[in-house]
Write a structure and sequence with these properties.
Elements (H helix, E strand, L loop, with lengths): L1 E6 L4 H12 L3 E7 L7 E3 L2 E4 L2 H8 L3 E4 L3 H13 L3 E4 L6 H14 L3 E3 L5 H13 L5 E8 L9 H11 L22 E3 L3 E7 L5 E9 L2 E9 L6 H13 L3 E3 L6
Parallel strand pairs: 1-2, 1-5, 2-4, 5-6, 6-7, 7-13, 8-10
Antiparallel strand pairs: 3-4, 8-11, 9-10, 11-12
Length: about 260
């Protein structure tokens, strides 16, 4: 039985993870951490705690799943590694240099960490298909849509998609004329390889992403829509089971599918 802790246990994603772990035949929820609702019972005998380190010391989880906030996640991951607890990180907003430092610490301490910008199998396939299409198109842009309570932009999924596409070529603006923004930001964020990323934040969305490829006389659109957060749970459980068996650092769910 895998002993699982959840940080951000009362958030939108955290609540789904709590239920998924409780329903799993091979996982046991032993720790729930959140800054809100301290003392609330989320499972039989498991009450929300606010002190992460004390909670780890008391319950000794095998794996912690983190769905917290961009401002907290980097500190949290370092705590997990120092405590020798493997982790699955769903919180986005980590900077590239922070991810590199986490990878270094994970390898030094031999404590497994999985960072996944997206746990939906469909979204991961969308990213993989975009990498395949990038071989054949010289122009591409990314549009990502999220609810208006998401704090980081662009999304981790959009950044990861751009990184996968960037492996295939250096420039995705072939043939574009010289541009001048008459309003700053009109053309979106410019990722490596001149991949423009446009972030939309609006009520009604959970998470959607569309990658648009173009060439003379044609366009190709690869789109994924999440309409219920339950779609992420099979990926979360897959990551829990994988990191429990390994001491590796892994960035991206596509690496364990």
């Amino acid at each position: 039985m895998i002993k699982v802790g959840i940080t951000g246990a009362l958030g939108k994603m955290g609540k789904e993870v709590v239920e998924a772990v409780k329903a799993s035949a091979d996982c046991e929820l032993v720790l729930a951490v959140d800054i809100a609702g301290v003392g609330a019972e989320v499972s039989q005998g498991v009450f929300v705690e606010s002190d992460l380190e004390a909670g780890i010391d008391k319950t000794t989880p095998d794996v912690i799943v983190d769905f917290t906030q961009p401002d907290n996640v980097y500190k949290n991951v370092k705590t997990y590694i120092e405590k020798g607890v493997k982790s699955v990180i769903g919180t986005t907003g980590l900077m590239p240099e922070q991810i590199k430092e986490i990878e270094k610490l994970s390898e030094e301490k031999q404590v497994g960490v999985i960072i996944a910008p997206n746990f939906s199998i469909g979204a991961v396939l969308m990213m993989m298909f975009s990498g395949l299409a990038a071989k054949y198109f010289d122009n591409a842009e990314i549009l990502e849509f999220h609810h208006n309570q998401k704090k980081d932009a662009p999304s981790g999924t959009a950044i990861k998609t751009a990184e996968i596409m960037r492996r295939e070529k250096d420039n995705f603006t072939l043939g574009n004329c010289p541009e001048k923004e008459t309003m700053e930001g009109a053309r979106g964020a410019n990722h490596d390889g001149n991949i423009r990323i446009h972030s939309i934040r609006m009520p009604g969305y959970v998470a959607s992403q569309e990658v648009v490829f173009g060439s003379s006389g044609q366009t190709l659109k690869i789109r994924h829509d999440s309409i219920d957060r339950k779609c992420y749970m099979s990926g979360v459980l897959l990551a829990i089971r994988n990191v429990f068996e390994n001491n590796k650092f892994i960035y991206g769910l596509e690496n364990i599918l």
